[in-house]
Amino acid sequence: MEGLKNMMEEAVEYQLNKILPTMPNVCSCEKCRLDMASFALNRLTPQYVRTDTGALFQKLNNSSQQAEVEVMTTVMNAINIISAHPKHDT
Ligand SMILES: [Zn+2]
After folding, report:
1. What is the CA radius of gyration of the chain?
2. Average pLDDT value for residue range 9-20
């Protein structure tokens, strides 16, 4: 929706970019990345903010360490599950 952004998408993408390079045996093609991101995003609480008030910047700075650990754990799960069942031939 115009003017709204789910901050959780940023957080999940950030964790994928951080974790995937450390796992060279895991396929990190666009299809798998999208599967991992959607798997994780469907299990995390969305964090919608308005994009027109500077709330975007505020929210980034306020994200707690506990929330970050939760995102990381969920993304790790997503990577493990999707990489075990990639939706394409190897
Ligand atoms: Zn793949």
Report:
1. 14
2. 96
